[in-house]
Amino acid sequence: MTYKLIAVDIDGTLLNSKGELTQTTKDKILKAVDKGIVFTISTGRPIQGVMPLVEKIGLDIPLITYNGSMVLKANTMEVLYSRTLENSDSRQIYTIGEDWDITMMIWSDNRLYSNKDNDKSNYYSEITKTPLILVNSLDEVSKGVTKFLWYEDEDKIKKFMPELMERLKSETVSVHTSRPYFLEFVDRMASKAIAIEKLSEVYDIKREEVIAIGDSYNDISMLEYAGMGVAMENAPEDIKKIADYITKSCDENGVAYAIDKFIFGGSI
């Protein structure tokens, strides 16, 4: 099979456990792109949290952000695909979060809002490199919500999940964790798989010509969608089970290893 598009998650996949992009991985990406491969970053991060990495890679590449809610070109910021939550869903999510005293991060129009000014919200603002706008009501968020992120302790998230699914009676919301302490809500038509499908249409690439590489639960849709779904060795076991191939860990240049195997037919 000749693969034409590679979609790669960031944390725990493209970056090692220290949050670094190794020279080995960067060189392999550049080599693949030089061969004509379309390389895209597919992440739950906002645009602001991706651009420093794009600059390190040194390429003008398409980006899948907010877990598939927005697809755009890095250089021109041209939006290729975008989905926001239904207003009724946003209000439901916000109300439940307030009832349970949750620290909520709200992405709208590439701005970051929160209902709390605390260590969690300030840390999230820092890692996403986006100023925090404090709100007392969802009415203060003027445009549609791209993504809600609840930032809470892992045990608390596990405890309230059954009741959350009981209260959130919506067929248009997708709920998943990107990390054990990040519970994310996006429109059901916003997923990494759908985003890759939309991006593939732009480049006239078939599903079977796609490689997706990831390590977490928000990567499941793209691993299942791609012609070759690759899980990192550091991924949870149930993620590995759905993958077509398991590459080396993020601390062993697993992305570079997979690119070399499936694009160049060798091993680094």
From TrEMBL:
Coiled coil: none annotated. Signal peptide: none annotated. GO terms for molecular function: magnesium ion binding; phosphatase activity. CDD domains: HAD_Pase. One of its GO terms (cellular component) is cytosol. This is Cof subfamily of IIB subfamily of haloacid dehalogenase superfamily/HAD-superfamily hydrolase, subfamily IIB. It comes from Alkalibacter saccharofermentans DSM 14828.
